[in-house]
Amino acid sequence: MPAHPAPHRPTALVIGGSVTGLFVAAALTGSADVTVVERDVLPDGPRPRRGVPQNRHTHLMWSGGVRALDRLTPGLVDDATASGARPVRVMADMVSRAMADMVPRAPDEIRFRRFTATGHRNLVCFGDLLDSVVRRRVLADPRVTLRQDTTAIGPTGDDRRVTGVRVRSGGEEHTLTADLVVDAAGRGSRTPR
After folding, report:
1. Residues contacting residue 176 through CB under 8 Å, at least 6 positions apart
2. Alpha carbons 42 and 44: distance in angstroms, whole number
3. Which residues sit opposite 98 in a β-bridge?
4. Is it the case that residue 98 has pLDDT exceeding 60?
5. Domain boundaries, given as residue ranges, for the chain
6. What's the pLDDT tens digit per position in 5-46?
7. Are 147 and 167 in contact (CB under 8 A)?
8. 11-44+54-188 belongs to which homologous superfamily?
């Protein structure tokens, strides 16, 4: 037996396995073991999922967001690009145009010329692809556990502190405890109730 017991590693619960919930989990792994509680069964790969209809649309992430993704989950942008996302340099790899009603005294439209140098590197892909890459990378971390097909019923604790979440899984209810609880469930959150 060691002379000094190992220090307690804090625990965190994140309600919601969306991109937001997964990035919260990634941010917390430096200081806690994280359990993500997700109501649905998440797809294995870039497929549509219930509750995220806009993921079928093309997403464009501006350069600041691209840098933030790579800082929070190193290698994510390269992984997304290898999976089919497109890195584009604004105004160097794209042509922009303004319609006549947007620019006074313009002909039918104005096409902005391409520039050879730009500081912006954007990422373009379908939301389902980005969601899949984020999920794969974050859930590969051994400090993150996913409890899918599990519904968060409500917080536990008292008027001073939330100590966990009451959940339903497989028709049974039980309580998951944690040092920190983050609600990233979005519009479907039950926390206000």
Report:
1. 13, 35, 37, 147, 164, 165, 167
2. 7
3. 110
4. no
5. 11-44+54-188
6. 667 899 999 999 999 999 999 999 999 999 999 999 999 998
7. yes
8. FAD/NAD(P)-binding domain (3.50.50.60)
The amino acid occupying position 150 is: T
Could you give the CA distance from residue 157 to residue 141 in angstroms, rounded to a whole number? 29
Amino acid at 191: T
Pairing relationship of beta strands 109-112 and 121-126 according to DSSP bridges = unpaired
> Concatenated DSSP letters for 26-69?
HHHTTTSEEEEE-SSPPPSSS---TT-GGGGSEEEE-HHHHHHH
The string of pLDDT tens digits covering residues 68-92 is 988 999 999 999 999 999 988 776 6
Beta bridge mates, 183: 15
pLDDT digits (tens, 9 = 90+) for 151-184: 999 999 998 999 999 999 999 999 999 999 999 9
Quote the pTM value: 0.81
